[in-house]
Design a protein that fits this description.
The chain is mainly α. It is 46% helix and 9% strand.
Length: 101
């Protein structure tokens, strides 16, 4: 779980998930009110996690798996990635992506 770099309080899963669903690049710490940003390393991991959602398509190519099973695995993996993503988030007090607003 992410930890605020200012007050060193650990955010809960629910707090992290709610902050991630906003369109803003900064996240306000619920404990001290300081702006926090997702670290560069944390943001580079996200696309790789999203590729996991496409694994059923790769499995379909390699093995004889039904289309129903393949298509049902995609949303299941999507939900799993969304549930696990707050555990991957790391915070920093500086915006490491200056082009973000």
């Amino acid at each position: 779980m992410p930890t605020c770099t200012n007050c060193h309080n650990k955010w809960s899963w629910k707090q992290t998930f709610k902050k991630m669903m906003t369109m803003k690049s900064e996240m306000i710490c619920p404990y001290c009110g300081e702006k926090q940003y997702q670290s560069k390393k944390s943001r580079t991991i996200a696309p790789f996690l999203n590729v996991i959602i496409l694994l059923p398509l790769l499995i379909k190519l390699m093995f004889d798996v039904s289309k129903v099973l393949t298509l049902s695995l995609i949303p299941i993996l999507g939900v799993c990635i969304m549930l696990l993503y707050p555990f991957v988030v790391r915070l920093t007090s500086k915006n490491e992506f200056p082009f973000d607003r």
